[in-house]
Design a protein that fits this description.
The protein is of the alpha/beta class. It has helices at about 35-40, 95-105, 115-125, 130-140, 145-155, 155-180, 190-210, 215-220, 235-245, 285-300, 350-365, 375-395, 395-415, 420-430, and strands spanning about 10-15, 25-30, 50-55, 65-75, 85-90, 110, 225-230, 260-265, 270-275, 305-310, 320-325, 340. The chain folds into three domains: about 10-110, 2-Layer Sandwich (Gyrase A, domain 2); about 130-215 and about 370-430, Four Helix Bundle (Hemerythrin (Met), subunit A) (Up-down Bundle); about 220-365, 3-Layer(aba) Sandwich (Rossmann fold), CATH 3.40.50. This is tRNA modification GTPase MnmE. Its main location: cytoplasm. Its cofactor is K(+).
Amino acid sequence: MQERDGHPPVIFALASGLSRAAIAVMRLSGAGTGKIVESLTGRLPAPRRASLRGLWRRDGAEPVLLDRALVLWFPGPDSYTGEDSAELHLHAGPAVINAVADTLVALGARPAEPGEFTRRAFAHGRMDLMQAEGIADLIDAETEAQRQQALAQVDGAQSQLYQKWADRLRTFLAHQEALIDFPDEELPPEVERGLLDGMRVLHDTMQTYLAEGAGAERLRRGLLFAIVGEPNVGKSSLLNALAGRDAAIVSSRAGTTRDAIEVRMVLGDVPVTLVDTAGLRETDDEIEAEGVRRSLFHVKQADCVVQVFTGDVVPEPVEGNSLLVCNKTDLYHAPEGTIGISVLTHSGMDVLRTVLADRARALTSGRAAAPFTRARHRAALEETVHHIGRALDMNWPEMRGEEMRLAMRALGRLTGAVDVEALLDTVFGQFCIGK
């Protein structure tokens, strides 16, 4: 980030996106924001009050009116980024937006990079890394469940839990350091016993949290349900019926579906990608064989396998989590223990939708308080648990202390408390421009 006069440059971005709308919100942030707003409007408005102002370009003999806009001024540190910031609520015509952007560049500002506003907020202590990721998730939330989960993360639910664990680890490490620094002192034996007992409780608590919290990670990314089965059992017809549109080609000819066809939908307030796959059978057709190979790949990746068949014989499940669905119940009787449907007559489809929604909710539910939501979180927590476990196995006090420091370091990476520079580009690069 290039600096001017010891301060990062003023950045700007269209926070409201590029779609056609009545109003476009241009955000600015940086130490020189006040001077730029003064140049555009003549004087700063009162802090945190919307003022209708003319925006002027003043680089020629005569000022040129760019737009009449609502201007809001947020002096730091009481702003989103912690810096002097402003918002220009413009008329959303492309000519207006481009003219204002060109003028901002001429005044010394530059376009923001993805996530740069939130990265500056993190750098100024306005939020920690977990909360920053929660903002990205809130922007991407498709369902009410995702919204609630992301909002809890933004409000600091996870951060507070991890900070409590970090405080306990710090206390344990202080006690361990005392045992190392004063080996000749008559310290009561219950000091070390209490230290080890406390570490075991924390280790078990974190292991339970990891086991119970995986559903939130699935909810954030969405689920994958693969529709599989032999050719001509009605897989593509079922996909179309669930999607409510003709997403896949339907034909009586076996082997019509050669590649995976994906449809995004919501089941049980959970985003689910339904994948229609090639029919599973032995074939000499090179293209169809590749489709079968891809089908088996999707089976391995799927959170739930919807295995469609017809007739009275129940097939062997292709995966342990297979949901056996007997299609064409207008011609066959569904065997016991399977879900009977007829895509042709719509019989049983409401029951199937309910079962799929229940499966989606079950896969994304969990009993953990403030559950983790990303693979990065899980990896850091697993590393923390690993080092605490190693510390408990150590007989040498110095080695135990080192494992505890490594555990604290791993836990600190979650909130950005220690050594996070290498993470920042990855985390904030996922943001949209203007956030």
